[in-house]
Design brief:
It is built from 11 helices and 7 strands. By secondary structure, the chain is α/β, with parallel strands linked by helices.
């Protein structure tokens, strides 16, 4: 169950800026949710919940909506508030706790905002290649990952893959699922790459004393958990 979170100062809640946080950073399919579950820390409402509650209603939308429409509205939100979801998080109030986990932030501007405005936050950046993230999306079959497809889009598969997957990686993906399923998930991977440069957070967090980087292709889940716990222990948690 998620810890309380509000944008109003209710009794018993503290400003988020005053509470230690462990913030997971990464794009869809890097393994944030799996790691969050394995760590077993008290958790704030996740990114999806904050967008549903505070971003979509601003533009007259209610979930569920197609994934590409969420991208459009969150992009519009970032045009008004460059810190994106990090601005929602930093303006919030939460129940006091030794450490709360938040899943998660994306993109350079969100991470930069959080680094500056959340002084007690620690960051774990999870990263993986686009081909790996696509395979994981194909495997997990989450309804949230579905997008609307038009008949013309089947012909766009190879065009969409350019700059995202190599021809060999695309052939591998097509061997795992029907072309329409690959296209649906590939749209998510390509759109995220367009909206959130995956190299941006790496530039900000690599070598930062408040950050840990995890290559989720090189580490299994147990290795990730050990790395995070050692990182927290070294910082007094």
């Amino acid at each position: 169950m998620a810890a309380p979170f509000a944008l109003e100062p209710f009794p018993g809640l503290l400003p988020t800026v005053e509470v230690p946080l462990l913030v997971l950073v990464g794009l869809t399919g890097v393994g944030k949710s799996t790691l969050a579950e394995a760590l077993g820390l008290p958790r704030l409402p996740d990114r999806r919940a904050l967008v549903d509650r505070y971003v979509l209603p601003r533009y007259g939308a209610r979930p569920p909506i197609p994934r590409e429409e969420r991208f459009r509205l969150t992009r519009r939100f970032r045009e008004e508030f460059p810190g994106g979801v990090a601005e929602v998080l930093a303006r919030g109030y939460v129940a006091p706790a030794p450490l709360l986990l938040f899943d998660g932030l994306r993109g350079e501007k969100e991470v930069a905002f959080a680094l500056e405005r959340l002084p007690k936050a620690l960051f774990v950046l999870l990263h993986a290649r686009e081909a790996t993230r696509l395979r994981r999306l194909l495997a997990r079959q989450d309804a949230f990952d579905r997008v609307a497809l038009s008949p013309e889009e089947a012909g766009r598969l190879h065009e969409l893959a350019q700059g995202v997957l190599s021809p060999a990686e695309l052939r591998e993906a097509l061997a795992l699922a029907p072309a329409e399923e690959v296209l649906a998930r590939l749209k998510i991977v390509a759109e995220e790459k367009r909206n959130y440069d995956p190299e941006g957070p790496l530039r900000l967090l690599r070598g930062h004393p408040r950050a840990l980087l995890l290559d989720t292709e090189a580490l299994d889940l147990e290795g990730e958990v050990r790395a995070v716990r050692a990182f927290l222990e070294a910082r007094g948690f």
